[in-house]
Amino acid sequence: MASKEGSLTNSSQSMSINTLADQVSSSLSFADPSSDSKTGNNNNKISEQGESGKSSTCRPSTSSDISDESTCSSFSSSINKPHKANDVRWEAIQAVRTKHGGLGLNHFRLLKRLGCGDIGTVHLAELNGTRCYFAMKVMDKTALASRKKLLRAQTEREILQCLDHPFLPTLYSHFETEKFSCLVMEFCPGGDLHTLRQRQPGKRFTEQAAKFYVAEVLLAMEYLHMLGIIYRDLKPENVLVREDGHVMLSDFDLSLRCTVSLSIVRSTNGSEGLSKSSVSCSQQPSCIQQPSCISMAPTSCFGPRFFSSKSKKDKKPKTDNGNHQVTPLPELVAEPTSARSMSFVGTHEYLAPEIIKGEGHGSAVDWWTFGIFLYELLFGKTPFKGSGNRATLFNVVGQPLRFPESPVVSFAARDLIRSLLVKEPQHRLAYKRGATEIKQHPFFEGVNWALVRCASPPEIPKPVDLEPVYPATPAVPAAASTSVRSDQSNYLEFDFF
């Protein structure tokens, strides 16, 4: 994400389209990946054409499961989002559409640049006359075409149109101009978890805070996999903090869409399936309706209802009439285990071994990155980072997992990380049953997964300044300054589309 200076209206305060074009092009220009340290907010991607402002890796999949075309039936009916039924921003967008017959760039005032990614810049935008604020991702279509990124931009848009989940972004609108493709999304004033972690004592989260954040991320990943979407870009920079302190995954331009099989398993060990049905991502499972507890006073996220301190040893198995142990309820398992991709995408420090070795990968790469993500939140660094990118990749493939002596974390936390950071994907936790296996790990003992949204976050963001940064005249510098991660070469991307 990026930050820009200017605003677009029909008034004298408007920023010209040409100026916006200059700034978007500047944000997409190739950066100098000279450092490996992880200190900023942006990352660098390396492609066959050169290096740009973010870093990931890509060879296209050879699997027949993968579709390069839109298959989600909800793509054309983005109005069907039950979780946004009472969203004033959604209502404001619909009101403008009804009044003007559509929505365009002239209906927004761009206030400041929030961030810059590989395929576009993100601006804080106000819907004219509403005091409703959005994050608008602006992509230069000519730049995308010249860098062969049009397919990735399309994939991200189509995925966003599918989503309706408390911990995933809302796409309020998408429109095109002659020069730009624009996505109007939810604005998260709390920044990202990377920045928030830097502000913590020791630049790391407490175990309870980390548990809160990874629990919400896990639910988001479970939902994505249920839709047949492999995320492939989990890292603190891509986890944004909403104004209420809950989190939201962002950036889906590296995601992979595939088919997924839904299974009902009889027991918690998942050894016996009752039924199976192949479901494509044209089906859009929706998570449960927003519970009434959202309107209640905040609840401690580590209270007995959510994160019980009661251990498994203290619990007695449920019995029927005191004689027989009750059979656990059947569980829904939705994991795209059959997906295979030969793409080389991701961040160096987060790349799974099977990606580095070019063996092809599936949904298990998301659970590897989930383990790296938890490790970084707890210890303030990633486990395999080397002196340079080549050393990092070597460590991921060839070095064992090690934990620092400080800080001290629970055995359950370390055991979960060990189970996720298994180099052979077929032996990795969640390889077969996805998030279901992780949710049953002792680290999450006592979590009431249906009510995670009701828990009180570890930290509530301070109110942000919504005043425009862009000057009142169109004379905006073409290269607006922005905070850029110094590990700009920490992303790899090789595109063979």
Automatic annotation (TrEMBL):
For molecular function, the Gene Ontology terms on record are: ATP binding; protein serine/threonine kinase activity
What is this enzyme's catalytic activity, as reactions? L-threonyl-[protein] + ATP = O-phospho-L-threonyl-[protein] + ADP + H(+); L-seryl-[protein] + ATP = O-phospho-L-seryl-[protein] + ADP + H(+)
Which Pfam families does the record associate with it? Pkinase (PF00069)
Recite the UniProt keywords alphabetically.
Answer: ATP-binding, Kinase, Nucleotide-binding, Serine/threonine-protein kinase, Transferase
Q: Which CDD domains match?
A: STKc_phototropin_like
Q: Where is this region: Disordered?
A: 27-81, 308-329
| Skewed-composition ranges (Polar residues) | 38-60
Protein kinase domain location is 108-444
Keyword Repeat found: no
| Listed Low complexity bias regions | 27-37, 61-79
What EC number(s) has UniProt assigned to this enzyme? 2.7.11.1
InterPro entries named in the record: Kinase-like_dom_sf, Prot_kinase_dom, Ser/Thr_kinase_AS
Q: Which PANTHER family match?
A: FLIPPASE KINASE 1-RELATED
Give the family per the record: Belongs to the protein kinase superfamily. AGC Ser/Thr protein kinase family.
Q: What is this protein called?
A: non-specific serine/threonine protein kinase
Species in which this protein is naturally found: Microthlaspi erraticum
